[in-house]
Amino acid sequence: MSDFPDIQTTPATPQAGFLINRNFALLFLGRLLSQLGDAVYLFSLSWYILVTTGSTAKTGIVMMTSLIATVIIGPIAGVWIDRINRKTVLISMDAIRMLIVGTMGVLLYFDILPFWLLCTGTGLVGICTSVFNPACSSILPNLVSKDNLTKANSLDSIAVNASQVVGALIGAVLYAWLGIVAIFILNAASYMISALLQSGIRYSPTAHKVPGEFMNELKAGFSYLKTKRALYLVFIYLIGLNFLLAPILEVYLPYIVQHLLHGTVAQLSYIRVSFAFGIVIGGAIMSKLPQVELLNRRFIFSLLLFSISLFGMLIPVLPKLLDSWSLHQAIWFYISLTVVTGLFFGFASIISNVIFQKDVEDEYRGRITSLLMTFGSSAMPFGYLIGGVSAASIPMYVLIATTAGFLLLITLMMLISKPIKEL
């Protein structure tokens, strides 16, 4: 007998347990397992390519194929998600990923997996993931009530970010113990178990009347978003946030640790893991807070604290303070600070998900979620490029102060925006 109450379509009881209801529990456990498998797989794959080829370029090419797939397929995926039973989408994407990764594992075992096929397979997995993730987010409001949306998104955030933290650690152990082939097979198995769990979801999709052509449906999604002024402003803000945050984590912090503090890659990894750990803590806190009707205050307050915390990153690298910090002190400062910034970022990320799930009609939810993920992912490479070029000629403390200051300014502009007050 299950410990979770059953749910047919949407309404979940407000007096929900830890995993809310049976349907959400199945979705959560499947997502946790597949995310953990992905984290172990990607960590081990990048290390394997670097060790066997000695080429950072080839490592970057393989990792880039997933991002390209997300950017290209993302908008189309949203149309598909709104057309088809979302449960079917989730199961199909897990099944396809299982077959691709499992096949690559077998070919690798027999040493007949060329580099081009590895890139192709990684790209195909990326395509499936770019469909799976927005489908997972879009189906949440169909499985839980509005009263439980914040808790559901908090738990989902914990699953994703805890997998990143634990995956790197497990990946290092499994790679040394079992080797890369076993990791391919284990990841394929995680997809299979995830699909089996999701097949147990009892979900009655809402029937929607949709136009026949993909492009018409895609344009309808854009048009719908523009009619929702508050959602459109949040949409633009989140894209800008991805653009500004990407170089801080992937360009500025590595530069600070290596060139200014003369630290090691291990110390950098501690800082990056601490950011994900902060998001996990944020998810745990948010899951305990009561659901409120208007989310604008929580959203803006989280973003304000996040923006202010970013200013802390410039303290150890200020010209008058740089030489007064020991490496040990500076690393611990950044570890502590990134936990705090991750905490506030986690708050804002969860609340933004709830806003879109609560205020977007079911027939448009897949398209809007995919557009948000696609444009957010597309903004990051531009952030890397501009941040990298800027770091070559502008002092690091100036870059961080400018980035944090600009983010704080646009957050304050949102604070006084009339449409945002209606969220």
From TrEMBL:
<feature type="transmembrane region" description="Helical">
    <location>
        <begin position="331"/>
        <end position="356"/>
    </location>
</feature>
<feature type="transmembrane region" description="Helical">
    <location>
        <begin position="88"/>
        <end position="110"/>
    </location>
</feature>
<feature type="transmembrane region" description="Helical">
    <location>
        <begin position="269"/>
        <end position="287"/>
    </location>
</feature>
<protein>
    <recommendedName>
        <fullName>Major facilitator superfamily (MFS) profile domain-containing protein</fullName>
    </recommendedName>
</protein>
<dbReference type="InterPro" id="IPR036259">
    <property type="entry name" value="MFS_trans_sf"/>
</dbReference>
<keyword id="KW-0812">Transmembrane</keyword>
<dbReference type="InterPro" id="IPR020846">
    <property type="entry name" value="MFS_dom"/>
</dbReference>
<feature type="transmembrane region" description="Helical">
    <location>
        <begin position="24"/>
        <end position="49"/>
    </location>
</feature>
<dbReference type="GO" id="GO:0022857">
    <property type="term" value="F:transmembrane transporter activity"/>
</dbReference>
<dbReference type="GO" id="GO:0005886">
    <property type="term" value="C:plasma membrane"/>
</dbReference>
<keyword id="KW-0813">Transport</keyword>
<feature type="transmembrane region" description="Helical">
    <location>
        <begin position="299"/>
        <end position="319"/>
    </location>
</feature>
<dbReference type="Pfam" id="PF07690">
    <property type="entry name" value="MFS_1"/>
</dbReference>
<keyword id="KW-0472">Membrane</keyword>
<feature type="transmembrane region" description="Helical">
    <location>
        <begin position="394"/>
        <end position="416"/>
    </location>
</feature>
<keyword id="KW-1003">Cell membrane</keyword>
<feature type="transmembrane region" description="Helical">
    <location>
        <begin position="61"/>
        <end position="81"/>
    </location>
</feature>
<feature type="transmembrane region" description="Helical">
    <location>
        <begin position="230"/>
        <end position="249"/>
    </location>
</feature>
<feature type="domain" description="Major facilitator superfamily (MFS) profile">
    <location>
        <begin position="228"/>
        <end position="423"/>
    </location>
</feature>
<keyword id="KW-1133">Transmembrane helix</keyword>
<feature type="transmembrane region" description="Helical">
    <location>
        <begin position="165"/>
        <end position="189"/>
    </location>
</feature>
<dbReference type="InterPro" id="IPR011701">
    <property type="entry name" value="MFS"/>
</dbReference>
<feature type="transmembrane region" description="Helical">
    <location>
        <begin position="368"/>
        <end position="388"/>
    </location>
</feature>
